[in-house]
């Protein structure tokens, strides 16, 4: 299978929770929402809590590209829209913008939607994209001047050296994991796939994304991507941090 055909190209977003937080606020999330690094999957005292969504960063090795192509060849495209009662999914057609897609997936699904401010870029996104097809949603993101401006401002804050040419490929990828609207199923939302992928079911009452089910899903995905041998993985949680 040929690599995805991108219609636009952005510079990549640095894997920094401060930058991710800046962007989600610029798009219209409540100041109570913040991204925090998950430093361990084994020490509950270190978990950001409550975790509403998780963003996993991993290297895009040759094995990853081959596996993605095999999956795409065997899967049928899915709409991934709220009309299905599950999750809102965005097909990635903007190169190097997987960080943006991960943030949008985290904000537009599960409990994150409760913290979107009215009359914001995010509230407009949810309102206008919920009933669109996946191709229409992709074109919506491509054409959003507000989203592109907020993204560019955040991407320029990074300290890592990145190519000045947005068309250059990067060797890492962001993927979001979040609950469905009923809060019982974990979905993997990756714009480079053919649609949302169901990963974990029957979550316990009150269980957040760093509960037993969520940690199991993340460990399984890390093993699939060679995480037992490769340290170039990182995990962020979208959490609520209330004052006082």
Automatic annotation (TrEMBL):
Choose any GO biological process term that the UniProt entry carries and state it. protein deubiquitination
Which reaction(s) does the protein catalyse, per the Swiss-Prot or TrEMBL entry? Thiol-dependent hydrolysis of ester, thioester, amide, peptide and isopeptide bonds formed by the C-terminal Gly of ubiquitin (a 76-residue protein attached to proteins as an intracellular targeting signal)
Q: In this protein, which residues make up the domain named UCH catalytic?
A: 9-240
Site residues, Transition state stabilizer: 92
Q: Does the keyword Protease apply?
A: yes
- Record GO cellular component, one term: cytoplasm
Catalytic center residues: 98 (nucleophile), 173 (proton donor)
Q: Does the keyword Protease apply?
A: yes
Give the Pfam families listed for this entry: Peptidase_C12
What's the top EC group for this one?
hydrolase
CDD domains (alphabetical): Peptidase_C12_UCH_L1_L3 (cd09616)
Keywords annotated in UniProt: Hydrolase, Protease, Thiol protease, Ubl conjugation pathway
Instruction: Give the Enzyme Commission number.
Output: 3.4.19.12
Q: Which positions does the site annotation Important for enzyme activity cover?
A: 190
- Reading the lineage from the top rank, the first entry is Eukaryota
Gene3D superfamilies, alphabetized: Peptidase C12, ubiquitin carboxyl-terminal hydrolase
Q: Name one GO molecular function term.
A: cysteine-type deubiquitinase activity
The UniProt family comment states:
Belongs to the peptidase C12 family.
Q: What protein name does the entry list? A: Ubiquitin carboxyl-terminal hydrolase
Biological source species: Paraphaeosphaeria sporulosa
Question: Upper lineage ranks?
Answer: Eukaryota, Fungi, Dikarya, Ascomycota, Pezizomycotina
């Amino acid at each position: 299978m040929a690599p995805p055909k991108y219609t636009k190209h952005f510079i990549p977003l640095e894997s920094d929770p401060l930058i991710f937080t800046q962007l989600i606020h610029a798009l219209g999330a409540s100041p109570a929402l913040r991204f925090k690094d998950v430093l361990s999957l084994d020490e509950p005292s270190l978990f950001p809590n409550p975790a509403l969504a998780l963003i996993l960063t991993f290297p895009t090795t040759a094995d990853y590209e081959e596996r993605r192509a095999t999956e795409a060849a065997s899967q049928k495209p899915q709409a991934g829209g709220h009309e299905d009662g599950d999750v809102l999914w965005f097909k990635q057609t903007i190169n190097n913008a997987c960080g943006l897609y991960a943030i949008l997936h985290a904000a537009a699904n599960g409990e994150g939607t409760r913290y979107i401010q009215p009359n914001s870029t995010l509230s407009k996104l949810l309102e206008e994209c919920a009933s669109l097809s996946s191709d229409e949603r992709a074109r919506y993101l491509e054409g959003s001047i507000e989203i592109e401006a907020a993204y560019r401002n955040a991407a320029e804050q990074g300290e890592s050296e990145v190519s000045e040419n947005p068309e250059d490929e990067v060797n890492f990828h962001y993927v979001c994991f979040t609950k469905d609207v009923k809060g019982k199923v974990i979905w993997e939302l990756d714009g480079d796939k053919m649609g949302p992928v169901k990963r974990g079911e029957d979550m316990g009452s009150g269980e957040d994304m760093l509960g037993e089910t969520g940690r199991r899903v993340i460990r399984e995905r890390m093993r699939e991507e060679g995480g037992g041998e490769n340290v170039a993985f990182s995990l962020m949680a979208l959490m609520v941090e209330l004052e006082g």
